[in-house]
Amino acid sequence: MKVSIIGGAGRVGSTAAYTLVNLGLVDEIYLLDIAKERAAGEALDITHSLSGMNSDVVVEGGDDYAGVRGSDVVMITAGVPRKPGMSRLDLRHKNVGIIRDVVRNVIAECKDALLFVVSNPVDVLTYHAWQESGLDEERVFGLGTLLDTLRLKSMLKKRLGIGYEEEAYIFGEHGDSMLPVFRLRGNHPREELMRVFDEVREGAAKVIETKGATWFAPAVAIAKVIEAVRQGGVYPVSTFIEEHQLYLGHLAEISRNGVRSVDFELTEEEARLFQRSVETVRSAIEDV
Ligand code: APR
Q1: How far is the CA of 124 from the centre of ligand 1 (A)?
Q2: Domains and CATH numbers, the chain
Q3: pTM exceeding 0.90
């Protein structure tokens, strides 16, 4: 499997590349970035690790879109990241322009790949990537709330000892209006669960305040998606919501053919919160 990463010289893109190689999920990676020297440098650094990992993955880097030809997945991490105090939605004006430009270049070289958007605000950018690409809606998707879901599960375990196998998700916008969806077997006080959810919703901003950006958890979430593309899987990612004609975090079936939202019954309260995410993302889409 070949994965190209646009923005591959950045923190999320390069860490994702390293994680994919480390987990043996790919045969070939192309890191494309306007910072072409750095992209080549990241590719060489990863290449130097291959003998120690007993891997013969081909990793290259540069700024030439011809390098994405033959990709099974083209992932986009290009764009400007948040600074302390910014919301993801604050990035939209800059990043929509970048995404449209990137997608145009990718499609000119490679129409068969799945388009996987990671840059933020991911739900808004995935919509614009889909529009620009002319691809079927299930061939374009975003990382979305899988990242928040992994963060939630990690912290439910750490704070409350709730096992990773328990059913807990975050749906909706990968942003301030996200909502928790708990389907736990045990009896856990709602306030305790909500405290962990609140901590997670603010969690990325905390990390940004301290180390400037987040990259380890995003890279692992990306690897889960690539693994699911290879062998199939069901995760909450930014997927096309037929009823609303936009992309939002919801449980979806992921395969080589792309991503398709699956039926999932929400409580009345969850449905109300999901609707709030729909409205937030819709107005952000219309505002760019
Ligand atoms: N084409 C290709 N690469 C680009 C372009 C472009 N038009 N514009 C920017 N880039 C590259 C930058 O050169 C940089 O290497 O995108 C990369 C972004 O990397 P970082 O600044 O390190 O940002 P990072 O922390 O990796 O976050 C990237 O992922 O999680 C999201 O919110 C985050 O939107 C942000 C994205």
Answers
A1: 16
A2: 2-142 (3.40.50.720), 146-287 (3.90.110.10)
A3: yes
